[in-house]
Write a structure and sequence with these properties.
This protein is an alpha/beta fold. Helices cover 40% and strands 23% of the residues.
């Protein structure tokens, strides 16, 4: 068993406590060069103890979700391409529900120029993005607002969602295991996500390939419950096979964009 150098142990403790570490801040804290810190972070990421993001790294907890800002930066380019592709699947004049998640937030940004949409959401970030878009009517659920990410959860959110039957649901997930199980960290969020899937005629999952490297404790559902899965790069072959067997339309943006 290889022991980490003392500075890397300290970096891990900071990342565990704060969720994210910055190269420049660490360089100043430890009185070393940014290049030295980058090497430390690269070493820790190679050991899968941290995830590299622009300007630093984040702590990949399996039981507590990463801070919202940190999650937003993980695979940012992939999330943008997923969002654009998912938005292209939504025709003008449609009704849809968007749930909580950084990739779903990006889908909302990609929808702002659509016309005659009705969007139901339990996500304050989505509502803030879309409320003044001229071609979009927004309905937001009531309930408890999570300070971490602006997600609205609880019985009131579920009750509101169950009043609608929509054309599309666009949902994210925190993790996908090799058996195709969709997983999340907050059982309250999972209950809302399940209600969203029940109320949609067509279900679109948006998730970048880092979700196959993570684990979370609460089950949302299974890939076979989904109609369309939009991701940024080719998933593990087990996932490809599950999609083929279940008739899930797998869209890989990297392959489409050449």
């Amino acid at each position: 068993m290889n022991l980490l150098p003392p500075r890397q142990i300290d970096i891990m403790e900071i990342a565990r406590r704060e969720g994210r570490v910055e190269v420049d801040t660490l360089a100043s804290r430890f009185s070393v060069t940014p290049q030295t810190i980058r090497k430390d972070l690269n070493d820790l990421c190679d050991l899968e103890k941290l995830y590299r993001v622009h300007g630093g790294a984040v702590f990949p907890s399996n039981t507590v979700n990463l801070a919202y800002i940190a999650r937003r930066e993980i695979a940012a380019g992939g999330k943008a391409s997923i969002a654009d592709r998912a938005a292209s699947l939504i025709p003008d004049g449609a009704s849809l529900i968007l749930n909580i998640g950084t990739t779903v937030d990006q889908v909302a940004h990609a929808l702002v120029r659509h016309n005659d949409l009705m969007v139901i959401t339990n996500n304050l970030n989505v509502a803030t993005t879309l409320y003044d878009a001229p071609g979009i009517e927004v309905v937001i659920s009531g309930g408890m607002v999570r300070k971490a990410d602006g997600g609205v959860v609880g019985e009131a959110a579920i009750d509101l969602i169950r009043q609608f039957k929509v054309d599309y649901a666009v949902v994210g997930t925190s993790a996908v295991d090799t058996e195709g199980t969709l997983l999340d960290f907050d059982y309250r969020e999972v209950r809302v996500a399940k209600a969203i899937l029940e109320q949609a005629r067509s279900k679109i999952l948006v998730a970048d390939t880092t979700k196959f490297e993570r684990r979370a404790p609460v089950q949302i559902g299974h890939l076979s419950d989904i109609d369309i899965f939009v991701t940024d790069a080719r998933p593990p072959e087990e996932i490809v096979d599950i999609c083929a067997e279940a008739g899930v339309d797998l869209i890989i943006t990297d392959e489409e964009n050449g």
